[in-house]
Amino acid sequence: MWVVPESEIFTMGLWSISIGAFGAAVAGIILANTDYFLPTTDKATVEYLEETDLKPLSDESKTFKAKDLWKKTGAVIMAVRRPGCFLCREEASEISQLKPELDQLGVPLYGVVKENIATEIEAFEPYFKGDIFLDEKKRFYGPQRRKMMLMGFIRLGVWQNFRRAWKAGYEGNLEGEGFILGGLFVIGSGNQVNC
Prior knowledge:
single chain, 7 strands, elongated, antioxidant, PXL2A/B/C
């Protein structure tokens, strides 16, 4: 009768655990890069957005309804995830390149932030060429807020975006809440919305 030495059993066990851990890691990376497990959320409707209370950053004692932004001419509104985020700064810069065309059409460009960290807004303003307002209740981020948690950091597309923005010279920081994702709304003067 042949007996397996104790050291070989230990080695076999380590190999089994290693292969299992490697397989789980590969499966996790594959799943993180697909949309199968991303939560589906309700989109914000015009009716939902128009009742949002916004505050001008210049005077937070004043409050007005968001529908005042687009009721006459429509508007393009960027809901900023985090003003210190270098990806958000890149996006704001790209959207701001459209401002001359929007001005010719009479369509204003606005930004909405969910928190007012003064130095963050000041650092963001050179990238964004529109007025910025505060949405304390985070309604512009949807009835069910979309979040990108830690699994987002193993998504290939996220790393490609990081690299592109970094190579373009955008810099940022980690100040403020950054898990709730932003968005872009193109709202017509009637009840038309694209998000």
